[in-house]
Amino acid sequence: MNWNLKLRNKIILAFIGYSILLSSLTILGVILATQISETRSYRNRAKIEAEYYLSDYISSFNAPSSNSFNSTKPPSPFITTYFGNELLPKWVPEKVPALKEGTYFVDHYQQKYCLLIRRLPDGENFYLLYNISRQGKYSASLHSLQRSILLTLLPIMILALILGLVTAHKVIGPILKLDSFIRNRPENERLPEYFDKNIHADEIGFLAKTLTKSINNMHDSIERENSFARDASHELRTPVTTMKNSLELLDELNPEMDKNVEKIIGRISRATSNMEHLIKSFLWLSRRKNLDDFDSVEVPIKELVHEVISEQSYILEKRDVVITVFDEGSENITAEPQLTKILIANLVRNAFTYTNSGYVKIHINKSCFQIHDSGRGIKPEVLKMMNKDLKAFPADGFGLGISIVKRLCNSLGWSFYIFSEEGKGTVARICYNTADDCANCAGFSLQSNRVARVENV
Questions:
Q1: Does residue 420 have a pLDDT over 80?
Q2: Cβ(346)–Cβ(308) below 8 Å
Q3: CA–CA gap between residue 291 and residue 410 (Å, rounded)
Q4: Domains in the chain, please, with CATH?
């Protein structure tokens, strides 16, 4: 059962619960009060009768005698008096063995009695036995009084419940209005300036004003970031294209150039290619944010991987690194070709860049793309930080490339895993078939204590 109720339902349930609790306590209080009142009434009746009876027959400390049998009977047929223990019913000492002064309530043969005991001046006891079980008419009157009180309280409690619910609705009305507006508005739009002005200038109004300001500032910041990335990327494409064309022209005009000059031109060419790759990545990130924004077609993942390796292989020049591709039943995937290439290229570039010797192994199958290198790896604290906030850890090592991969995977709804041991290498995986469980695919088992699955944020 889901107990995550809405605020309105919580408040209504709280009012109903408190109303039922208070009503129950009120009814219980009325019943207890009338019962206590009835008991006190019997006790006081017995006390008054005893005092009245004794005041008529006791004129001194020595008279009348406790053994007087010619005493006048009490006026009430429900009251019997006894002087001394001789004529006292035998069951009374059994019920009240001590026979000390006081008032007692006892039962005998389905009869209820109120027994009052007083010590006379001559040392004997005076007993007044009041049969209260025969006072049925008084009990009926008491029950009638209880019903009258409860029937009077019932409409009052119902009215209080209705007023409480109306008050609760009035109190939470602005909150419900705020919630409804936020839920129904388009996700990527600013809040209108008049939004907070439709709410009273109280605590909720202050919250609405702060919310409007915060959301609009956030949208402005995101828009500035996207505009900067988009404009900067467009502006940078022209000089990068010029540099690339100039390098190609220079290579054609001087086919037999000096080796030192050729090395310098090679470095410039690689730097230009890197810049072009980053510009493409930034443009994709700034233009498209959701899966619906992409035009998906069939992409031959195997051919794409070999194409990326061919383009990035210059990074491994003069390095003793063996590249191996394992095709474990790869199939064409439905995705945007350029975006898929950017994802794979970022991971391949990272693996090539930070592997000075050893191997780079690439596994591809119908569900995943995985790359495993024997490079320097990632520090444990950095790997742990990646799962919390990818933006927080430094760009050194896998920073920028992993950041781009993560954001693009989030946009596509794909899963991204990374496993690393400092000094031993890194394994990165993209699972583009989210319907399958890829926890143990592509040649290695994810170890929970050393693997970060980069979640959507």
A1: yes
A2: no
A3: 9
A4: 7-141 (no CATH), 289-453 (3.30.565.10)
